[in-house]
User: Fold this.
Amino acid sequence: MGTAQAPQAAQAAQVAAVSSNGVYSFTKPNRESITLLAGLGVEGDVHAGVTVKHRSRVAQDPTQPNLRQIHLIHRELFDEVAGAGFRVEAGQLGENVTTEGIDLLALPAGTLLSLGEEAVVEVTGLRNPCLQIDHFQDGLLKQVVLRDEEGRLVRKAGIMGVVRQGGTIHPGDPITVTLPPLPHIPLDRV
Assistant:
């Protein structure tokens, strides 16, 4: 694995909030801390496990590897959608970790994110948001999934990852970015 640092790391990237929920629910309550378990995800979270836990994916094939053990969203997205009249706070879009000071969507697949003193998450891809976002706030889906000038689909609802090294993380913990070796592979939905 490469040790190059992403330019975003110089912006004092940090954990803004942590959230988890032991039952299926669109939103996740904020916590004082969460514990990441290597190869599983967030301790006590309904989406933790070696195999897929998202209902739609379980219905397709419950033996698929869980590439969505942890969901991260950049807090800056909340500011962006606020400009269109939506109020979103940490945990409300189902993320486990809300970040700030890092462009999560620009990271390549395989990037390692060190969260706090011990935890390491490998980025696997983009969250593919569903209609539940519109049930949360009508019209919000169009703010987080849209098309660019060339007609390509742009997903802004965060990234997914797998836990490579466990550890407890708290709001305010630093985030360090380690890019994978070249060539970098852009994120796609997982």
